[in-house]
Amino acid sequence: MARHRHGGLSHLHGNDRNRCSSHADFKLKDWQTMIAACIIAACIALVGGSMAYRGAAKVELDREAAAVALQRKRLHSF
Predict the structure, then answer these.
(1) SS3 labels along 21-49
(2) Taking the CB of the first residue and of the last residue of the chain, which one, N or C, has fewer CB atoms within 10 A?
(3) φ and ψ at 27, to 5 degrees?
(4) If DSSP codes are grouped into helix, strand and coil, which group holds residue 4?
(5) Other CB atoms closer than 10 Å to residue 12's CB: what's the count?
(6) What are phi and psi of 5, to 5 degrees?
(7) What are the φ and ψ backbone dihedral angles of 13, each rounded to 5 degrees?
(8) Structural domains counted in the chain
(9) What is the span of the domain harbouring residue 64?
(10) Would you give per-residue pLDDT tens digits along the chain (78 residues)?
């Protein structure tokens, strides 16, 4: 493949352009929306997961506090 370097950029000349058509068809701007949507979805999932984890920890803490309160109530009753 005939490549010439000019100013740090690589250029294809002549029939060599057809050989790399798969690379020429890829355009980042066509994928930007999907990439951004995936990043946003991952962030939402991460925040949602952390909120659920904190909620579960709070439920466990409340359950333990209720058990301790019930134990104290029973000890004072007898």
Answers:
(1) HHHHHCCHHHHHHHHHHHHHHHHHHHHHH
(2) C
(3) -130, 125
(4) strand
(5) 16
(6) -100, 130
(7) -125, 145
(8) 1
(9) 3-77
(10) 555 555 555 555 555 555 555 556 778 888 999 999 999 999 999 999 999 999 988 888 899 999 999 988 888 865
